[in-house]
């Protein structure tokens, strides 16, 4: 036999497991054989296989299958199963037994079994035509019904009737209808029409007519030249909604407690209406297990109560199609009762029936009646069983199934357990069910026998059969039902018995077998299977095609695959008879099948593991007897996408930054896309997240960021995933549900429920309390407990109205406080303590103020807390003075000066006094000292320090507590001429009663004056006599503005300014310089200069090496601080220093740029400086190195600013980087009120530092610095003050920089450079002046040739009468529009100054009149107009005007 097949589908691109290449697969047919075999699909007689036809009629497939069957061992069981499935069945399945027994008794040879099996399999072969439109349109096809109305078609009478019937086929089918099994002539009825290209009927009632006239059974026929297809028999019915019959209902009288049924009896409608009960006022009836509506629509009362007659009852029917609701006349209840009072309070009574005097009784069934009933249901429908019982109290209903359990997946209870619904009933649901109604008086049972019948349903619905000429096939129509349905075959709508005979067709019960089909065998077959409960109708056509091979996929496809993956190359094809398919690679002649290759039946070639050598061009060739077709596929092999650095699980604190890495390797020819998922959902990248190619960064991690993060690296061919989990440690949630227990006089137990710890264990709980008497609303810490407890006993104080709350603490932070607990007040008691911190001090010389710390709410112990204050003079026998005070202070007046007193303060409340207080010594007020230190002696220690010695004053003259001796001194003058000094008074303190001290930080070479006083708590005493002293010469400070310039490769120019602090008479300068090249140093050379020399030019001996210069000034005492600088590096040489120097900020008002060859001048000196003790710095006297950094611009100040000599304006620590963790090269760039600080370190990233600095008053301040935050700025500094500074690690204070000293500049220091001395500015001004001069000359040449002002030819000719300025001799030289001359001066903001025009001739002359020659030409000299603001200072706006500067130069 032969079989038609269309192999492959466009969507079949997934990986398919390779089927076993077994010769038993008779459906594949991949190896056609030229041999001709006998057709074994014939008659099976028990034990004998009888051939029905000769060898010549055997198909190629049958011959091949028989050849393959010779290799089988045994297929006996498979043959028996398929035989049983293929034979027609009767009403039951008992016939199978004898057939199997007979088959077992007579066993044919194995090859016979195999051949018969293959034959049966071949009869089932038929597939659909491919969905390719070009093939669909070319191939002929019998009609197929695609759409039709339901079998029971109910329509709304208000709408037009629509009966659907649509079909497809080639050629397109035509349609006709039958009505009640007779031909329905559409053309004769004007209301009926058929849609175009469709068989759908439309019955239009817009012009009149009754829809009921068209009720009946309709059937649609679709026909073309290859056959006829039929629709179902469609029963058309018109929806009906009849009215309720008119009736007068008498009131229903019933005894309270008796059962009652209100019948609905709705009118019959199509379909049946939906029933519901309401009152006549359209309020729904409340239903419960006592009052409910049955499935039949009746309203059941298990027992009637008096409140039931408060409303009436009306049955309502809602009809679906007409959307109408009809209401029946209402029932009125009249309840007879022994207790006529309807007390609403009894409705919630636990035994309302006995309370109302209603007799109790056992249950009885209201529906269904009796103890047993039966019910039939069709398979697939819903089974509804109902039991409604009466009784007092109202019975409960329970459901059971005999011999088994209720189907839990399909069963559900409705209507307060009175109904059991089982959905989608099957045969297994048949049996006996019973409901049990019970109350406290007894129980009763009703049994319901359920029988399940079935309308026909498909077991094997016939499918369309498409064959090639000479092909064999079959149609199977197998259905089941209860009772067993009968099968009727039709062909083209006619019974098969009355159809013309066909020798190639054989009917065997529910199967039609076709052999050696030809083109004439095309037809549409109908299978109708029916029983008493319904029918099924199916159409299946037989089509015979003869088509050469065709390729269905696009040609020359490119397939890209990933290395080492399994892939499949599709080659969908179609042909009839079925073509054979072969694959070739790169044009080679060998067929690809076996080994790493596997060819599927649908034409796909599977490569089990792709390698690089599998890349190339693959050709598939399909061949049948009508021809052949081929297609090519190009295969490219790509490297896989792999994540080689995956994100790792992380634990992060809330608010920190987290980075998840995801580094990917992929084929460079493919586009890579990296995306992220959170909890397997796409991650939204907000403003707190940053996604890069190889990482995801989350800033400010919050609790909602916790979860799993998946990195998805994908190309168009593959992808790789990597997942990590982020755990966020957050502050704990607040504790909740605070409870107070174990209430006692002085204690209470507080219990709480911990909140979520947010992944960080709770370490502590803090219990706080609030009281409403002394500080309401203010919370205080009470106690602290470990995080492992949630209950604690709290010790309480008397007479406090407590309220508690709890705060949880973990490593991340504290939770929000819990909600407050309830209040608890303790009883009162006398105070158990007295106020603390009792003091007695005088605020005036004749009083003493007694103060103490008031007691809080937890120590008051009672109401009306007050204090008993007692005092008396010390060491006297006088009695105690006492007073009661409600505050926290008391002032004792009229006291002697500075006398000791004994003081006591005792607490008292309404419950009693506190314990006896301790005695405290206090003093009355002080007065100013009466005496001054005498015999003050001064000894000069060095140029900056003196030693003082004096005689102490007598104690009785102090008149208070001696605090210190104090020296006031001021600088009277400098020994240097023309040096202005500040005479600001300074002071030095010497605490305690001492006779000597040292004053340091003086200016050398200066005249000073000094006075001494004694100081107590009241203030200074009288001053001693004024002493004068002179400080000797000292070493000068470093030369200022040390500059090194290199105009060419042969010379180096050095320039400097005099030291800011000469500290004596300068006798000269010393310059030391040395050549260096990398680490190699030359010989040091020393040059000495006179004190007036500030320049030096050096001839370079080595054009390659650089030079390091050190310059210092000298006095008679010695050399002072040195300024160090290096010559500029060549353009192609990198600076060997570790970091470039930082220039200080440019002063306000200084313009211009610093030359690249200029360098920052530094002055370095080492001196012993006494500094306060700083943690981490052992010695008190430290050798500190200071450096001064100044700008390279020239200062214009005439006088030198006064500063202490020990420090300079900037400081830098030139140190080398150590091997261990350290901080070095601390650089300070100070101004008058701030300083910039930088340093170097070898700590890791993320290290925090602390800058600590101490001023001259020993005030220490610290500034925390975040990592990588350099430079930092110290603000709020004092001008002219000396500071010591160090930098240390925040994590380890022992790792610190050396201590350095720097001084801020004084407020009046002006280091601004004069812009007028800058060369670039002078050149720019000259160029502008030349340009303006040329423009002015051009303008005056034009004016002399055609100006509008009148010019007298001779000097003595009088002005004409037309001259408007005749009286005062002035004249008008401007044009008629009063516009400024082109090229006139404009202001700096671009506006033209018209009132002070630069073209005014008066402005060019010395006086107010212009001077002219006889021909009228101008002879006045160009001069600068004297601005009215010129005398206001040398920094006026004109000074900054470029034009005015040009005039100055001119």
Keywords:
7% helix; disordered N terminus; disordered C terminus; 10 helices; 1450 residues; mainly beta; 7-stranded antiparallel sheet
Overall description:
This protein is mainly β and 1450 residues long. Strands 84, 85, 86, 88, 89, 90 and 91 form a seven-stranded antiparallel sheet that branches. A hairpin with an 8-residue loop joins strand 62 and strand 63. Helix 1 runs antiparallel to helix 4, helix 2 packs parallel to helix 4 and helix 8 crosses helix 10. It is flat and about 155 Å long. The chain starts with a strand and ends with a helix. The N terminus and C terminus are likely disordered.
Structural class: mainly beta
Helix content: under 10%
Report Rg.
59 Å
Q: What low-confidence regions span 5 or more consecutive residues with pLDDT below 50? A: 1-125, 1133-1217, 1308-1313, 1347-1450
Provide a quick synopsis of the model.
By secondary structure, the chain is mainly beta. Helices cover 7% and strands 39% of the residues.
Topology:
Layout: E1 5-7, E2 43-45, E3 48-50, H1 60-69, H2 76-86, H3 96-105, H4 110-123, H5 133-138, E4 141-148, E5 152-155, E6 161-163, E7 165-170, E8 174-179, E9 182-184, E10 192-194, E11 201-203, E12 216-224, E13 227-230, E14 234-238, E15 252-255, E16 260-262, E17 274-278, E18 291-293, E19 299-301, E20 314-319, E21 324-327, E22 333-336, H6 352-355, E23 361-367, E24 372-378, E25 383-386, E26 388-392, E27 396-401, E28 411-414, E29 419-422, E30 431-439, E31 442-460, E32 465-467, E33 473-476, E34 478-482, E35 486-491, E36 494-495, E37 505-508, E38 511-514, E39 523-531, E40 534-544, E41 547-551, E42 557-562, E43 567-569, E44 573-576, E45 580-585, E46 597-599, E47 605-607, E48 616-624, E49 627-638, E50 642-645, E51 650-653, E52 658-661, E53 663-665, E54 673-678, E55 681-682, E56 689-691, E57 695-698, E58 707-714, E59 719-729, E60 736-741, E61 747-753, E62 764-771, E63 780-786, E64 791-795, E65 801-809, E66 824-825, E67 836-841, E68 847-853, H7 857-860, E69 866-873, E70 881-885, E71 889-893, E72 900-909, E73 912-913, ...
Parallel strand pairs: 5-14, 15-22, 24-31, 32-40, 42-49, 51-59
Antiparallel strand pairs: 1-44, 2-3, 4-7, 6-11, 8-9, 8-12, 10-11, 12-13, 12-14, 16-19, 17-20, 18-19, 20-21, 23-26, 25-29, 27-30, 28-29, 30-31, 31-34, 33-38, 35-36, 35-39, 37-38, 39-40, 41-44, 43-47, 45-48, 46-47, 48-49, 50-53, 52-57, 54-55, 54-58, 56-57, 58-59, 60-61, 61-64, 62-63, 62-65, 65-66, ...
Helix pairs in contact: 1-4, 2-4, 8-10
């Amino acid at each position: 036999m032969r079989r038609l097949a269309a192999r492959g589908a466009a969507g079949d691109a997934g990986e398919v497991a390779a089927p076993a290449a077994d010769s038993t697969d008779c459906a594949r047919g991949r190896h056609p054989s030229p041999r001709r075999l006998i057709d074994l699909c014939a008659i099976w007689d028990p034990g004998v296989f009888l051939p029905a036809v000769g060898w010549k009629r055997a198909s190629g497939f049958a011959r091949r299958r028989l050849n393959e069957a010779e290799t089988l061992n045994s297929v006996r069981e498979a043959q028996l199963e398929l035989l049983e499935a293929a034979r027609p069945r009767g009403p039951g399945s008992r016939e199978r037994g004898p057939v199997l027994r007979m088959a077992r008794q007579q066993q044919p040879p194995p090859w016979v079994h195999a051949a018969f099996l293959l034959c049966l399999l071949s009869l089932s072969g038929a597939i659909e035509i491919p969905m390719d439109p070009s093939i669909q349109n070319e191939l002929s096809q019998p009609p197929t019904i695609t759409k039709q109305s339901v079998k029971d078609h109910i329509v709304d009478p208000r709408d037009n009737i629509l009966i659907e019937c649509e079909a497809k086929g080639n050629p397109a089918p035509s349609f006709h209808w039958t009505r009640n099994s007779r031909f329905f002539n559409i053309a004769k009825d004007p209301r009926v029409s058929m849609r175009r290209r469709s068989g759908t009927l439309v019955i239009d009632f817009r012009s009149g007519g009754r829809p009921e006239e068209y009720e009946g059974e309709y059937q649609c026929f679709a026909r073309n030249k290859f056959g006829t297809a039929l629709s179902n028999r469609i029963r058309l019915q018109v929806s009906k909604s009849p009215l309720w019959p008119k009736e007068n209902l008498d009131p229903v009288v019933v005894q309270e407690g008796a059962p009652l049924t209100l019948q609905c009896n709705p009118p019959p409608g199509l379909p049946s209406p939906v029933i519901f009960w309401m009152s006549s006022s359209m309020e729904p009836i409340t239903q419960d297990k006592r009052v409910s509506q049955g499935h039949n629509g009746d309203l059941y009362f298990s027992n009637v109560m008096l409140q039931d007659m408060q409303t009436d009852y009306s049955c309502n029917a809602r009809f679906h199609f007409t959307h109408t609701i009809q209401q029946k006349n209402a029932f009125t209840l009249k309840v007879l009762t022994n207790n006529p009072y309807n007390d609403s309070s009894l409705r919630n009574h636990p035994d309302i029936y006995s309370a109302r005097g209603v007799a109790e009784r056992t249950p009885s069934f209201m529906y269904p009646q009796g103890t047993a009933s039966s019910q039939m249901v069709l398979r697939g429908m819903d089974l509804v069983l109902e039991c409604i019982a009466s009784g007092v109290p109202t019975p409960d209903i329970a459901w059971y199934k005999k011999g088994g359990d209720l189907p839990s997946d399909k069963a559900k209870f409705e209507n307060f357990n009175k109904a059991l619904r089982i959905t989608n009933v099957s045969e297994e649901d048949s049996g006996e069910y019973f409901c049990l109604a019970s109350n406290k008086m007894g129980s009763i049972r009703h049994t319901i026998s359920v029988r399940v019948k079935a309308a026909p349903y498909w077991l094997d619905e016939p499918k369309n059969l498409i064959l090639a000429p000479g092909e064999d096939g079959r149609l199977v129509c197998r259905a089941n039902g209860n009772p067993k349905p009968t099968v009727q075959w039709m062909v083209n709508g006619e019974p098969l018995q009355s159809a013309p005979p066909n020798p190639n067709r054989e009917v065997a019960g529910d199967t039609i077998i076709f052999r050696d089909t030809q083109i004439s065998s095309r037809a549409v077959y109908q299978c109708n299977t029916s029983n008493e409960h319904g029918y099924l109708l199916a159409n299946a056509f037989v089509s015979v095609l003869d088509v050469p091979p065709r390729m269905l996929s696009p040609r020359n496809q490119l397939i890209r695959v990933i290395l080492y993956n399994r892939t499949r190359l599709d080659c969908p094809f179609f042909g009839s008879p079925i073509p054979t398919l072969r694959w070739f690679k790169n044009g080679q002649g060998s067929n690809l099948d076996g080994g790493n290759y596997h060819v599927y039946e649908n034409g796909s070639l599977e490569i089990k593991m792709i390698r690089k050598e599998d890349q190339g061009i693959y050709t598939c060739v399909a061949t049948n007897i009508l021809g052949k077709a081929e297609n090519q596929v190009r295969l490219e092999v790509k490297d896989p996408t792999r994540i080689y650095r995956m994100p790792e699980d992380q634990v992060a604190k809330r608010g920190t930054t987290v980075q998840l890495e995801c580094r990917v390797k992929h084929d460079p020819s493919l586009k890579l896309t990296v995306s992220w998922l959170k909890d397997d959902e796409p991650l939204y990248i907000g403003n707190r997240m940053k996604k890069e190619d190889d990482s995801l960064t989350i800033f400010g991690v919050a609790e909602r960021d916790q979860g799993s993060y998946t990195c998805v690296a994908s190309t168009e061919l593959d992808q790789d995933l990597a997942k990590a989990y982020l755990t966020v440690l957050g502050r704990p949630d607040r504790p909740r549900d605070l409870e107070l227990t174990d209430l006692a006089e002085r204690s209470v137990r507080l219990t709480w429920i911990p909140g979520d710890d947010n992944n960080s264990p709770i370490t502590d709980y803090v219990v706080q309390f609030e009281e409403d008497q002394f500080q309401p609303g203010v919370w205080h810490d009470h106690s602290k407990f470990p995080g492992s407890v949630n209950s604690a006993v709290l010790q309480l104080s008397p007479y406090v109205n407590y309220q508690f709350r709890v705060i949880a603490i973990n490593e991340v932070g504290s939770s929000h406080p819990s909600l407050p607990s309830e209040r608890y007040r303790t009883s009162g008691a006398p105070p158990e303590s007295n106020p603390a911190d009792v003091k007695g001090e005088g605020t005036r010389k004749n009083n003493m103020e007694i103060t103490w710390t008031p007691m809080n709410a937890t120590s008051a112990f009672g109401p009306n807390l007050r204090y008993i204050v007692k005092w008396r003079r010390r060491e006297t026998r006088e009695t105690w003075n006492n007073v009661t005070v409600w505050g926290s202070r008391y002032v004792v007046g009229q006291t002697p000066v500075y006398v000791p007193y004994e003081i006591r303060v005792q607490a008292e409340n309404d419950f009693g006094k506190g314990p006896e207080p301790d005695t405290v010594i206090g003093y009355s007020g002080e007065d100013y000292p009466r005496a001054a230190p005498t015999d003050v002696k001064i000894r000069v220690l060095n140029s900056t320090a003196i030693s003082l010695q004096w005689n102490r004053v007598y104690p009785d003259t102090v008149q208070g507590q001696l605090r210190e001796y104090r020296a006031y001194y001021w600088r009277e003058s400098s020994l240097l001429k023309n040096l202005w000094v500040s005479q600001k008074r300074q002071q030095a303190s010497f605490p305690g009663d001492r006779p000597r001290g040292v004053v340091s930080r003086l200016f050398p070479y200066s005249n000073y004056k000094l006075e001494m006083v004694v100081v107590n708590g009241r203030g200074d005493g009288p001053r001693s006599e004024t002493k004068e002293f002179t400080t000797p010469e000292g070493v000068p400070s470093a030369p200022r503005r040390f500059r090194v310039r290199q105009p060419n490769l042969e010379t180096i120019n050095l320039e400097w300014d005099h030291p800011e602090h000469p500290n004596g008479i300068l006798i000269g300068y010393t310059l030391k310089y040395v050549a260096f090249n990398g680490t190699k140093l030359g010989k040091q050379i020393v040059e000495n200069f006179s004190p007036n020399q500030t320049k030096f030019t050096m001839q370079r001996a080595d054009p390659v090496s650089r030079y390091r210069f050190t310059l210092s000034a000298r006095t008679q005492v010695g050399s002072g601080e040195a300024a160090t600088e290096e010559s500029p590096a060549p353009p192609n040489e990198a600076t060997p220093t570790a970091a470039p120097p930082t220039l200080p900020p440019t002063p306000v008002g200084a313009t211009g740029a610093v030359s690249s060859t200029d360098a920052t001048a530094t002055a370095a000196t080492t001196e012993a400086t006494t500094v306060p003790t700083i943690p981490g710095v052992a010695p008190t006297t430290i050798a500190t190195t200071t450096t001064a950094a100044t700008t390279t611009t020239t200062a214009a100040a005439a006088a030198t600013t006064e500063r202490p000599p020990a420090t300079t304006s900037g400081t830098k620590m030139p140190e080398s980087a150590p091997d261990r963790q350290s901080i070095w090269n601390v650089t300070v760039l100070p101004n008058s009120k701030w300083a910039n600080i930088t340093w170097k370190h070898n700590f890791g990233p993320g290290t925090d530092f602390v800058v600590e600095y101490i001023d001259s008053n020993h005030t220490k301040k610290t500034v925390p610095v975040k990592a990588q935050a350099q430079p930092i700025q110290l603000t709020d500094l004092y001008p002219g003050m000396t500071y010591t500074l160090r930098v240390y690690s925040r994590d380890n204070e022992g790792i610190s920089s050396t201590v350095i000293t720097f001084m801020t500049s004084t407020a009046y220091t002006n280091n601004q450079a004069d812009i007028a001395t800058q060369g670039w500015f002078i050149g720019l001004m000259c160029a502008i002046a030349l340009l303006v001069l040329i423009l002015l000359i051009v303008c005056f040449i034009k004016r002399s040739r055609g100006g509008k002002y009148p010019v007298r030819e001779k000097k003595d000719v009088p002005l004409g009468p037309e001259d408007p300025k005749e009286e005062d001799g002035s004249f008008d030289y401007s044009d008629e529009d009063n516009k400024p001359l082109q090229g006139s001066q404009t202001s700096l903001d671009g506006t033209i100054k018209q009132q002070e025009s630069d073209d005014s001739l008066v402005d060019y002359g010395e006086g107010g009149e212009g001077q002219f020659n006889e021909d009228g030409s101008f002879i006045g000299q160009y001069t600068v107009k004297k601005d009215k603001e010129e005398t206001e200072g040398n920094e006026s706006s004109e000074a900054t005007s470029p034009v005015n500067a040009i005039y100055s130069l001119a």
